TrEMBL record:
Pfam families for this protein: ABC_tran (PF00005)
Highest taxon listed in the record's lineage: Eukaryota
SMART domains, A to Z: AAA (SM00382)
Domain ABC transporter: 195-486
GO molecular function: ATP binding; ATP hydrolysis activity
The name this protein goes by in its record: ABC transporter domain-containing protein
Keyword field: ATP-binding, Membrane, Nucleotide-binding, Transmembrane, Transmembrane helix, Transport
Similarity comment: Belongs to the ABC transporter superfamily. ABCD family. Peroxisomal fatty acyl CoA transporter (TC 3.A.1.203) subfamily.
InterPro entries: AAA+_ATPase (IPR003593), ABC_transporter-like_ATP-bd (IPR003439), ABC_transporter-like_CS (IPR017871), ABC_transporter_sub-D (IPR050835), P-loop_NTPase (IPR027417)
Length: 487
């Protein structure tokens, strides 16, 4: 046509570029089709409480496809399912902040969730910043009625029943000078209480079906608890309740946090002078970070959230997220009072930001040293959830843990994609880092890394029992033999 003079050369170029656009837009749907169909049924589990994730996801994911077919059922469905995938995989107390809407910023939801969300405000902001970096406008979603229903909680099937009596509270102890030992050091990690669950009953939000009945237990420092039970018995729901993300039920959950007198939120693990330190002390090895997030409770899901960004940003997430993502203070201006107390933490955290050596060291520590060369250093951006295997993503999540060193971490099948040797290695590393963990898992090999096991049975209303769980200590010598036999 060009040679016959019917069209100009520029038109050919324009057509090529237009077709490429269309191809890439449709490819997104094609590539995500499996995920879209696999998760479609789960969308009903979304609750208004989870709307922050929904909106963060909306703001952050795949606007191309949305623009292409706004309002059509197929794309809506796809996005809903993808959202659910995101929810199932990315939900975590270190990732979920208080409820926020679209890209309007954060809104508070109540002190209890806020307390839990102390790490999370930054994360919520980061997700939104991440979304903004993808140049997504919230008004692009105006036509999506069904999503709006979910986000607003106005659709009857998404209305959360009134808040009942499941309470989460934080008790903050300040360790005064008198508790410092005579040589000036802080008493080593003794058996202080980290978490107390009192008479916790969990029910499903809509049907009110009982999952866990009248659970009471305490978790002390280094009291590693394994949660086991049949599929659907309520293990994940329990961890979500601990993370402040499951409100349906009754009882009381108390987190105990400690302040060693230096900073509100970072407790020095080892001090050699008689005075509380003015400056954080650390050396370049990850093992010897002298401070930790004393108040942070991390939730590591089976499929960790991979931020859009560089490998460096992956590693710094969520603890040093404010700096690495350039989130403005405004983004969290409406944050909860508890989290406002975090400003000192942010300050100290920025002083303690891991160096390049630390990042390389921690990657080697989780047996991921090779990804630095594979992905051309720490500063190249990739779609990490696609280019890393699930096992690699899980190791990366443990690298984040080893950098942040929270006092308590909730692990929801977080090593499910790893071989036994890597799993054992990672558990040993977080144990050595002084992190107390509560894990959900099915493999008996996990017994070796825990002191207690909580068995949850499927609740049977006909049974007439007062509880559907039992807690027992793990005898390490006998479990080793059992594990050997079963492997
Ligand atoms: N948001 C929700 N609304 C209603 N029911 C839910 C919701 N979330 C979970 N459930 C139901 O609660 C029950 C317990 O779910 P949960 O995910 O806690 O089980 P689980 O013990 O972790 O299972 P698995 O080992 O298969 O992961 C399941 O029957 C599930 O369908």
């Amino acid at each position: 046509m060009y040679f016959s003079g019917k069209i100009e050369f520029g038109v050919i170029n324009q057509s090529v570029s237009a077709f490429n656009h269309i191809l890439s837009d449709f490819s997104l749907i094609v590539y995500q089709f499996q995920a879209i169909s696999a998760f479609s049924a789960v969308i009903d589990r979304l609750e208004p409480d989870q709307s922050m994730l929904v909106s963060a996801f909306l703001a952050g994911y795949g606007l191309k496809a949305l623009k292409l077919a706004t309002g059509t059922r197929v794309v809506l469905h796809g996005f809903k399912t993808k959202l659910t995938e995101y929810w199932n995989s990315g939900i975590s107390s270190d990732e979920v902040g208080p409820t926020c809407k679209g890209s309007e910023g954060l809104t508070s939801e109540g002190p209890e969730v806020g307390a839990q969300g102390l790490v999370t405000d930054a994360i919520a902001s980061a997700i939104l910043a991440d979304a903004r970096r993808r140049s997504i406008a919230s008004d692009a979603f105006d036509n999506i009625g069904e999503f709006d229903d979910v986000l607003d909680g106005t659709h009857s099937s998404y209305v959360l029943e009134p808040d009942n009596s499941l309470k989460i509270s934080f008790q903050h102890d300040i360790i005064k000078g008198s508790l410092f030992e005579s040589n000036g050091s802080i008493p080593p990690d003794e058996d202080f209480k980290l978490l107390e669950i009192q008479n916790l009953t969990l029910q499903t939000p809509k049907s009110g079906r009982t999952l866990i009945l009248d659970l009471s237990l305490e978790i002390n420092n280094k009291d590693h608890l394994l949660v086991m039970g049949p599929s659907g018995s309520g293990k994940t729901s329990l961890l979500r309740a601990l993370a402040g993300l499951w409100r349906s039920g009754s009882g009381k959950i108390t987190f105990f946090t400690r302040d060693m007198g230096h900073s509100r939120s970072l407790a020095p693990m080892d001090m050699s002078s008689s005075e509380p330190l003015k400056e954080p002390v650390r050396d370049s090895k990850i093992d010897s970070f002298k401070y930790r997030r004393a108040e942070g409770v991390f939730f590591l899901p089976q499929r960790p959230y991979m931020v859009l960004g560089t490998l460096r940003e992956q590693l710094l997430y969520p603890t040093w997220v404010e700096e690495s993502f350039g989130v403005s203070q405004d983004a969290s201006s409406d944050a909860l009072s508890f989290s406002l107390q975090m400003s000192s933490l942010q300050d100290v955290c920025s002083e303690m930001k891991p160096t390049e050596d630390d990042l390389i060291h921690v990657l080697q520590d989780v047996h991921l040293g090779d990804i630095i060369s594979r992905f051309k250093g720490l500063d190249t951006t990739y779609e990490w959830s696609s280019v890393l295997s699930l096992g690699e993503q899980q190791r990366l999540a443990f690298a984040r843990l080893l950098l942040s060193k929270p006092k308590l971490v909730l692990l929801d099948e977080s090593t499910s994609a790893l071989d036994d040797a890597n799993e054992a290695h990672l558990y040993r590393r977080i144990e050595a880092a002084g992190i107390t963990y509560v894990s959900i898992g099915h493999r008996r090999t996990l017994y070796s890394f825990h002191n207690k096991v909580l068995h949850i049975l499927k609740f049977d209303p006909e049974d007439g029992s007062k509880t559907n769980w039992h807690l027992e200590p793990i005898n390490q010598s006998s479990t080793y033999e059992e594990a050997q036999k079963s492997s």
